[in-house]
Amino acid sequence: MGFLTILKKMKQKEREMRLLMLGLDNAGKTTILKKFNGEDVSTISPTLGFNIKTLEHKGFKLNIWDVGGQKSLRSYWKNYFESTDGLVWVVDSADRLRLQDCRQELSALLLEERLAGATLLVFANKQDLPGSLSKEAIREALALDEIKSHHWCIIGCSAVTGENLLTGVDWLLDDIAARIFTAD
Amino acid sequence: MDPTAEVGHENGLSGESGAAKMQERLQKRHQARIEEVERRKEAKENQSVAEEKGEYFSSTFATEQACVEELLSSCSGADRAAVTQRLEEATARTVQLQKFLNDSMLFLTQYKMRQAQAALQSLQTSIAEIREKALPKKKFAFGARSKGPGNVPAPVSDAAPPDAAPPADSGEVDGADASEQCFFSNMDDEFLTKTSEEIQKRDVLLSHLSNCKVRLFGSPSTLHLKHIDSCEILCGPVSTSVFVDSCRNSTLAFACQQLRTHNTTDTQVYLHVTSRAIVEDCHRVSVAPFSWSYPTLDEDFTASGLDRDRNNWSQVDDFNWLAAGIPSPNWSILPEADRKTNWGP
Ligand SMILES: Nc1nc2c(ncn2[C@@H]2O[C@H](COP(=O)(O)OP(=O)(O)OP(=O)(O)O)[C@@H](O)[C@H]2O)c(=O)[nH]1
Ligand SMILES: [Mg+2]
Fold first, then answer.
1. B124 located within any domain
2. Which of A100, A114, B98, B219 has the fewest CB atoms below 10 angstroms from its CB?
3. Molecular function terms in GO for this entry (chain A) (predicted)?
4. What's the rounded mean pLDDT across residues A105-120?
């Protein structure tokens, strides 16, 4: 039995997944994480490092890493790539001025070898704002249709109302589970 | 979803060894068992409290929903004024209902949550439909932008021209949905104001302003300032974050949940911030407590949901200065003697 097969078996037994949440600063990553976990979102500060949360959902143990997105922190993102099963890319759908930044950061990530096997969920967040762009517009602006290297999906959501957070995470888990927990 | 403890901490038998400690260990083990039983009991009790809360939620939600539906159905055949008033009330109640749902999410089952979310959605749709039919569209044109609603993203279709893609190199996708996002941009030497009605719960963008005085009387959901030079910008309570980029030589005042300041120099911020303010790539930014006031400030504070008693204005995190214990040279507290007390009109 090869090493990879052993690893796979181990994961299978624990049904454990590692999710990495990234995106520009102010996108709403920490708010999504806390809302998903049913915590108060009114006291969240800009992340000066990272948060890790372990929670159970649908019989899986999720280790979710939420890393700060300020410019000065982005060079540290790579420290968190290892053994990521799912990448959650969070976009502030009302921040039209930084969509190009957002697109560039995402395409750089997708070239990373250590993220090669990860499933990509794009959250088009802040859909509650009247001026937010639709998920179709975000999909176009980020050129998601050009992604051939990863399984991906974009979901419009709002961390403030909680809308669609479950839908997104459920899709992600299903996709990952289909990849890593089913027989070779 | 079942949140579990962050990281399990077993009260294991670490460290000591030897028979002399055995008794103590057994005692500890016993204690741990008792605690475990207690914990389970408590969890069970919490469970039943959650169920009770769930019942309460369902019935309250249903009553309120019926009430809004009643209001909406009474719109048909009514005159303009009555429709306007009923729609307003229906909207306000729906917003309350959404809040109620948000606050209850912690203990609701997924099924209930989705059900409630769907009910809210259908209320919102009905409100929009009635408004569309009974009242002419109020176009939200804001600011002096000469361009019309520009590159509204075309409906996604397979037939889209292959070269339609990337927006200009400027990196700015703007103009889209100009009727929805509030903005002032490209102005010089102006006095600009917005009323509460115009900015309530919206995302407001101010960009490329110089030598302007701006007064935003109301509570937007979020506020972005970009390329601001020598301006005085005052804004009521912002329910989420204020994002400032490339601002110089200006005076700002607002209340918000988070303040994120980038590439900003020689700027004073009169601030009420309930979580934290940060600076990145900034120089000579100074902070003072929020002191601007206007007649409807109290109401706007309430509408924003911000905690008025929690103001961390003097604690600024500098992302370029992570040396613990040594204060950042990039920001400071504005000395009391230098603070503005009279804000004028
Ligand atoms: N209106 C609205 N505001 C949101 C939403 N999600 C997050 N926010 C607000 O956006 C601001 C930034 O949210 P955070 O969760 O701190 O953003 P982040 O992505 O973790 O930012 P960094 O930690 O700097 O990387 C906060 O003021 C949130 O309240 C949303 O869905 N709608
Ligand atoms: Mg964060």
1. yes
2. A114
3. GTP binding; GTPase activity; metal ion binding
4. 96
What is the sign of the dihedral through the CA atoms of A76, A80, A86 and A90? negative
| Domain termination site, one of B116, B134, B152 | B134
Q: Which of A12, A70, A100, A104 is catalytic?
A: A70
Going along chain B, which residue ranges are E strands? 2-3, 182-188, 191-194, 203-210, 213-216, 222-229, 232-235, 241-248, 251-262, 265-280, 283-289, 316-318, 331-333
Shortest distance between the Cα of A29 and any Cα of chain B, in A, equals 13
Residues B197 and B286 in one domain: yes
Please write the tens of the pLDDT for every residue from B320-339.
986 777 899 999 999 999 99
Higher confidence at residue A102 or residue B108?
Answer: A102
Select the residue of A54, A98, A160 nearest B7 (Cβ to Cβ): A54
The DSSP H or E segment spanning A52 is strand A50-57
Q: pLDDT tens-digit profile of A115-165? A: 998 999 999 999 999 999 999 999 999 999 999 999 999 999 999 999 999
Residue to mutate, A25, A26, A30, A138, ligand 1, most ligand atoms under 8 Å from C-beta:
A26
Q: Is A68 labeled as ligand-binding?
A: no
Q: What CATH number is attached to the domain comprising B113? A: 1.20.58.1250
Q: What was the ipTM of the complex prediction? A: 0.91
